[in-house]
Amino acid sequence: MAKRVIDVTRRQLLLGLGGVSLALPVLPSLLTKTAYGADPVFTRAPRLYWVTTEHGGAFESSMFPSASLLTDSASVFSDHTARAGKLVAKSDATSAVLSDVLRAAASTLTPALIAKMNVLWGLDVPFYIAHNTGLHLGNYARNDGNGNDGKAVQAFPRPTIDQIMAWSPSFYADLSSIRERCLVMSGRPVSWNYADPSAPSDQIENVRGSTSSLDLFKRIFVAPSSSGAPAPRAPIVDRVLANYQRLRNGNTRLSAADRQRLDDHIARIAELERKLTASTTTSASCSSVVAPSDDANKHQKNDPADAARQLALFNEVAAVAFMCGTSRIAVLCYGDTSRFVSYGGDWHQEVAHQWQLADAQALLVQSYQRFFEGVFLDMAKRLDVEEAPGVTYLDNSLLAWTQESGMETHGSVSVPVVTFGSAAGALKTGLLCDYRRTTSTSSQYDPGAGGKQTLGLLYNQWLATVLQAMGVPPAEFERWGHKGYGVPYITKDSWTPPFAKHYGDTSSRYFQMASDYLPFLKA
User: Fold this and answer.
1) Would you tell me how many other CB atoms lie within 10 Å of the CB of residue 305?
2) What is residue 401's predicted lDDT score, i.e. its pLDDT?
3) Whose CA is closest to 389, among 3, 5, 9, 4?
């Protein structure tokens, strides 16, 4: 039989900025004469990539596309109508412009890519959470305790949704190639989980991220074994299990708390053993992967290009991990965006806290635009290459960018959410969705600059939508007898926006629907 010649196209060989090269694994359908064009529709388990930035503070008129795009409507309740419309960019010289923040080179932010994008307007956290890193992914208890509301919700810590997914059998039905359940990148405390994820309890701990993209690469990629390699080591768990059982079950002086610590420790060892086992599989080695020649932690300059380069290196490692199948979840947690405008002063006090002033507002908008184009859009483009005929890695992923606050710095009205990808067909895309209750004056709030804000739907419902799009059912994430994800809490402070007037209490209609898909999004 004559040998078949297989052409390797640019879509089958990817070269990243930091020197990571990736060859696709062997595809059996290319090695036979049989035509597979009539196979059932290609399906792929979805992947999640989440990026976070601090503060917020950009005027809604700068962050969100024009409301003139909102041509469709859906009744949430008889007195609350949500609206949506197709995202369409305007041309501005060489740029494609959805808003002052959501703009980029027209050659990059193409109509085809915009069709895979969503912008969500009108998602609220109905209490004063102020300084926090926990809002993004659902652990509202991770706030600095500013105000009575922040202190109150600190009593209700939860794992973040990336970790709920990472330990869900519905999301990871097969862990054979998974080196890291979730890649947490950069040093901000944004990801949280149970002390022992296999045995949920009230003890919630920060999942520390990596500041080195190269270290992450080494953790999730291993070279294929060479011939003559030494025999595998005895499992770590086997070495310590006998001592563990003797100490835990045989020592009457051991306290209940110390037994829990031992259980947590052995669970961590078991997870390490699973990772080491995964590293020996063929799928985890992913054929020809070359280590990056650069590292994110080498890029700390107060310079926009250097800041974008730092985060692009994390993007690169996560993108190749998704393509290889060594992980399906990654979180890139970033602080303030001052480096994207080379600001040398106190960004928090001089810019974020002065969001209502023209000069500060201009800096915020410029920094977010550069972050959008240099980091978030960069990741979308990396994944927008063909995975199967007519389907890209981006189609089979969900990329989300969230900010700490809405238009009012430290305020949680209309927290902006921008996405790319359909989560393997679970979500509709190409939409501007406006969930605000715009017909009710009782739902309006005047922050003192940038125009009035209007309350809409719960951010909890957005988190529940993501979980379900990723295949995690409500039975796995609902808690305390409530729908949605997060802390079911309404502000007790009278000076905050009209949350209580709009949302009622935690038994209200908005909380009851919080495990439903957000309007317009379900495919």
Assistant:
1) 14
2) 98
3) 9
